[in-house]
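Service request form, structural biology core

Requester: graduate student, group of Dr. S.
Request type: structure prediction, single chain
Budget code: on file
Notes: please return the result as structure tokens.

Sequence provided:
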Amino acid sequence: PYWICFYQSLDLERKIGSESGVCGNYLAFSLSMLSVAFASTLMHSAQLRLFSCNDSVEHKFYSQSTQRQLKRLDIGCALWMIVFFSICKGLEQVLPIALLVLPFFITGAILKRTERYHLYTVVHGLWHIFSAFSGWYLLTV
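Core staff response, request fulfilled:
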């Protein structure tokens, strides 16, 4: 879903243009969304072992250490989006949406930690859909 938001925000930039400053700039949002899309795709690709290379590259990419670093990158980029919207839209708009979406993230983390992977997959997928939609909503209001 983040890749769709990235593409749509570029399309808005092309059709509407931007106001001055970072907060009125669809391109700034697009680059922020691109960082989330890229980090999330890398992390989940490593988790699912989607890339097949030679054994030494594969071992390094799929190591626990690399996955921890990719997870930090993914969460860091997501936190940057929250900061971006908090600065540009104000906490009064961001907080209610975050409180609707955050339970999916927390529940997914609990399900993963308790090794209930099937439920985790569903809840974490919903987290991605709702968080991407929330970013798009905040951009367009």
